[in-house]
Each structure stands twice: as structure tokens, then as C-alpha cells.
């Protein structure tokens, strides 16, 4: 089966691919060196471990029962249906940790305005642009979950804006180096802006 393009299955059809789109594939080993991999002989596939469709508007969705030390690498997809209101974005936390234990840096383009920022001591890591426009926002996030070091998050995303569309590339980290990730919290920074119809898919990497 050919590799899907970024967002092909998840963003367009709202149907998760058996293998996450290309963004996640280029980070892990690919045994087929003719297909852009390193020929290392490790077969990496992805398993869908959580699928959520929001039936009642929410400001948070929790995914529990994880084992980041075993799984090591996650691919998270959020297709958020948001209502008009204040500038909203989606973010991720781990193990319910809402302390100032996250850092992030981003490059964004909102309409024709390009900007960058760096923040430290946050209580979450954003995974979508801030937008006050109603509509669908899509994000794809790779999470390096194994303990023993900072847990890194790399996200790219897009959504509606006053200038037409906004996009952002963001990297962040959870500064907790000890605790195993057993829970992932997807946050809407405006209450109830994970509107009805929002979908969240979480994959884990499986090696053989």
C-alpha cells in the first residue's frame, strides 16, 4: 500500500489510516532504504489504540491506560470542530500535570503574518494555532514518550483564520523526566471548544 500523504486519510475523510501519515514515518526507522528509510531492518508499524468522537462539547478529553515507557512513541491526531469565540487552540498535557512544567517554541503563519515565539514554564504544549474563527482545525503530533529524559512533542497543524487559514509548526517538551506517561490530556483553551463532532486518534509505534 503506498504511503498516504500528510493528512490524506485523517484530515480529509476523517477515517484513520492503518499507518499514520508521512510525518510520523520519517521519524522512525524504515527498513526499506529505497523508500526513504535507513534500511536498518526494523519493521515499524502503527497501531490505533484510542479513537474518540466528541458527542457533547468538551474542554478536555483524557486518554488513559497508556504505558509510555513500553510504547515509546505516539502519533496523535486531533480534528477539532470549534465554535466562534475567543482565540482558541488545542494543547496536550501528560498524567494530568497542569503545573508549569512545559516549554515550547513555534513558527506560525496566520493569514499573511509570519511570526515565531518561545515560551517556558507553561502548563501545557499547544498543538494547534490560536484562532477565533469557527471551523475545523487539524493537527498531527509526534510524542517521544519514554522516561529518562524530557518528553518531546513535535506538532504541525492548520485551521481557519481571519486571513483565510493559519498554520503552525511547534516543538515542546514535558520537563518531567521520571514519571511514566500513563495518561494524555487533550485540552481546549476555550471551554467547550472541542465541539460535537471533534475526533481524536492516538496511535502507538509497534516494532518487529
Topology:
Layout: H1 8-12, H2 22-25, E1 44-53, E2 60-64, H3 68-71, E3 73-82, E4 90-94, E5 102-110, E6 113-122, E7 125-126, E8 135-144, E9 151-159, E10 166-174, E11 183-188, E12 199-207
Antiparallel strand pairs: 1-12, 2-11, 3-8, 3-12, 4-7, 4-11, 5-6, 5-10, 8-9, 9-10
Give an overview of the whole structure.
- The protein has helices at residues 8-12, 22-25, 68-71, and strands spanning 44-53, 60-64, 73-82, 90-94, 102-110, 113-122, 125-126, 135-144, 151-159, 166-174, 183-188, 199-207.
- With 208 residues, it is mainly beta.
- The chain has one domain (52-197).
- An eight-stranded antiparallel beta sheet has the order 1-12-3-8-9-10-5-6, with no helix packed on it.
- The chain is globular, with a radius of gyration of 16 Å.
What is this structure, in a nutshell?
The chain is mainly beta.
Helix share bin: under 10%
- Strand tally is 12
Q: What is the number of helices?
A: 3
Q: SSE order in H/E notation? A: HHEEHEEEEEEEEEE
Instruction: Please outline the major beta sheet.
Output: 8 strands, antiparallel
Q: Radius of gyration in whole Å, from Cα?
A: 16 Å
Strands of the biggest beta sheet: in what spatial order?
A: 1-12-3-8-9-10-5-6
Q: pLDDT under 50 segments (min length 5)?
A: 1-18, 24-38
Mean pLDDT value: 78
Strand content: over 45%
- Shape label: globular
Q: What's the number of structural domains?
A: 1
Classification by helices and strands = mainly beta
Alpha carbon gap, first and last residue: 19 Å
